[in-house]
Design goal:
heterodimer; A: alpha/beta; Glycerol-3-phosphate (1)-acyltransferase; 7-stranded mixed beta sheet; 3-stranded antiparallel beta sheet; 11 helices; 10 strands; 35% helix; B: alpha+beta; Alpha-D-Glucose-1,6-Bisphosphate, Chain A, domain 4; 7-stranded antiparallel beta sheet; 3 helices; 45% strand
């Protein structure tokens, strides 16, 4: 069963409803995406994915024509190696289908890093950004678990944890695009997260100041202890498995007025089965 | 024998869960890693029926011939090996909160003295993950079959 969802705390806005235009430097700029630049880094991504992570990708043939919402689990802390494999696999397979990625404004709003991210097609997470991308006929990749899932404790590395966030469902339903779940296994073996530090982040008011709800404590190479993602780490060379699952048409399955809790449980159930099945193929921890 | 048990809560009553667990023609649909589940004779879902089974673990497929030793609807189903890798498997269903707690136990014993015990230790976490994946798949099939049929 997927992790039990929790609702946003009273007084805390659901991040998906904050217009990106309200966040300095994080306005959605779809024209910033640079296909030439993306193509130029794909060989490097291929080398990292193939030689370092021995990545296997399945299921791209299941992706239907037209715009889709890729819904993926998020692992491995700030380095998030499965993102590299997902970006590589999509752009390699669908040379002429643009993909935009929704990310935290901690990525898009930072000088230099934000500008580089935008060249990759990264947009500040929000309904506004995704709607603009779909209107152009593009597809969108979202990590509903976001900062919470990417720093879930190591003991939960084989669990889907979207923390009850359902904005992606409402987006796909409203825009009438199919959801394609993308499940990655192995990313959370590249770093050992001891604690997600939610209480510490709340105590220091990071959740209100920077919309950061976790302050993780991790063990990672080469510096050993890492707090809040600093110092940066080098991911362990874990074997990665990424699978694109069968598309989910919310309107066909749940009608015009879905019970969002039921739809959430359905999508996370399919993803949990895939993640657990991939985990069962793992024979030697981070190695295979 | 080395014994591994994992459990899960399924949000459906025991008779709906047993419709899967007790149906010996459905195991390839939810038992993760099973590469062969072939009845020896007609499947009538009764004690004493025999199957050839193989389970993919690491680099190999392992198994042999098993016999169904217990089937009491809607609570238990078990089998044990007659030929091949020595093992026993048992599903136990317990009603709880309108749903069902499903426990799956796999006991196994490998040949060889030092390496047999060593490989049992190495294989245990792999078996644990196979049981977890099997129970997650079973839960998904039972809870969402009405939606998947749409």
């Amino acid at each position: 069963m997927a992790s039990k969802p929790t609702r946003p705390e009273p007084g805390q806005p659901d991040v998906e409803v904050i217009p990106a235009s309200m966040i300095a430097g994080a306005e959605p700029d779809l024209d910033a995406r640079d296909p030439e630049m993306i193509r130029s880094v794909l060989p490097m991504f291929w080398m990292i994915a193939t030689m370092y992570f021995r990545a296997e990708v399945r299921g791209l043939e299941r992706v239907p024509e037209g715009p889709v919402l890729l819904v993926a689990n998020h692992s491995g802390g700030t380095m998030s190696p499965d993102s590299i494999v997902t970006i590589l696999s999509w752009n390699g397979y669908f040379a002429e289908r643009p993909l935009y990625l929704l990310a935290h404004n901690m990525v898009t709003g930072v000088p230099l890093l934000g500008a580089l991210a935008k060249k990759f097609g990264v947009l500040t997470a929000g309904l506004e950004s995704a709607t603009l991308a779909f209107a152009r006929g593009a597809s969108v990749l979202v990590y509903p678990g976001g900062d919470r899932e990417v720093y879930r404790p190591w003991s939960k590395r084989h669990r889907i944890d979207f923390d009850g966030r359902k904005g992606f469902l409402k987006l796909a339903h409203r825009e009438n695009v199919p959801i394609v779940p993308v499940v990655a296994d192995g990313g959370h073996e590249t770093i050992m997260v001891l604690s997600d530090g939610r209480k510490l982040a709340k105590l220091l008011r990071f959740d209100r100041i920077a919309r950061v709800k976790v302050l993780p404590v991790s063990l990672a190479l080469p510096f050993g202890l890492s707090i809040g993602g600093f110092p940066p780490h080098v991911p362990l060379p874990t074997k990665l498995r990424v699978e694109y699952l069968d598309p989910i048409d919310l309107r066909a399955l749940f009608g015009d007025e879905p019970d969002w809790d039921v739809a959430y449980d359905y999508v996370t159930s399919k993803m949990q089965v895939a993640l657990s099945t991939h985990a069962a193929r793992r024979t030697l921890g981070p190695v295979r | 024998m080395k014994a591994v048990t994992r459990s899960i809560h399924v949000g459906r009553p025991p008779d709906e869960v047993f419709a899967w667990v007790g149906d010996l023609s459905r195991y390839r649909d939810f038992f993760v890693g099973v590469s062969l589940w072939e009845p020896i004779g007609e499947v009538r879902n009764r004690v004493g029926e025999r199957f050839k089974i193989l389970l993919e673990i690491g680099a190999t497929h392992t198994g042999g011939r098993v016999v169904i030793t217990e089937r009491s609807a809607p609570r238990h189903l078990a089998w044990e090996s007659e030929v091949g890798t020595r093992h026993r498997a048992r599903f136990e269903l317990t009603p709880r909160d309108g749903g069902t707690d499903v426990a799956l136990t796999l006991e196994f014993r490998l040949t060889g003295r030092i390496f047999g015990r060593l490989v049992e230790q190495i294989a245990t976490p792999i078996v644990e993950r196979i049981l977890v994946a099997t129970l997650e798949t079973l839960r998904d099939r039972v809870e969402w079959q009405h939606v998947d049929a749409v």
